[in-house]
Amino acid sequence: MRWHSRPAHLPVSGPLLMRGPALSPDGERLRTRHATQGGAISVEPRINDRIRVPEVRLVGPNGEQVGIVRIEDALRLAVESDLDLVEVAPNGKPPVCKLMDYGKFKYESAVKAREDRKKQVNTVIKEMKLRPKIDPHDYETKKGHVVRFLKQGDKVKITIMFRGREQSRPELGYRLLQRMAEEIVDYGVVESSPKQDGRNMIMVVAPTRKKAEAQAERHAARQAPATESPAAQAAEPEAEPSA
Q1: What's the CA gap between 55 and 68, in Å, rounded?
Q2: How deeply is 100 buried, as exposed, middle or buried, from its count of CB atoms within 10 A (0-12, 13-18, 19+)?
Q3: How large is the average pLDDT for residues 42-66?
Q4: pTM of the predicted model, to two decimals?
């Protein structure tokens, strides 16, 4: 079999002539080289001479509306006020820009975001496992752990584990969970009533106060000794010298 070379005047066929996005055999769009090798897209707003539009809707440093002005005039006002021209709404027609100290704005935004992260409270669910025929001493110990978790502001999932013939007596686990709920009523409320889950029976108890309040109380308790010690030392009378 003889192979014939393609004449030079014939157009190139195949994927080299595709004008649309490249598709995989499954019809999915393939990434292009510039998309995979390019850097991350910047999310910083455009400022000063990076704003390439003929005119903008200008907002003053105190929030006052200046109106639609040419970009040259807006930049001149920024220089005269020793401020930055920041594009705050690029999709506006025309885009909205504001006069501000951009460095100070970024610093205050970072501080605020850090404070918000500190105040954010993550809900934690603790788990306590019991057997239907638990020893009284073990029951009191585990109940103490449940109370401690609730005081810390955490939810508690109490699980009754059935083994062997105990699976035919689910009422034992139900009564045990009801007893636990009644004895810890001052610290938590039943969020999810007892229900069977395979070989286990589960009840979820939520704390009566928020976790942020519990954390604030613990923080205040740790700070109390440090603040009281100087006052206590000042209140102590000095010993009289012996004759």
Answers
A1: 7
A2: buried
A3: 87
A4: 0.44
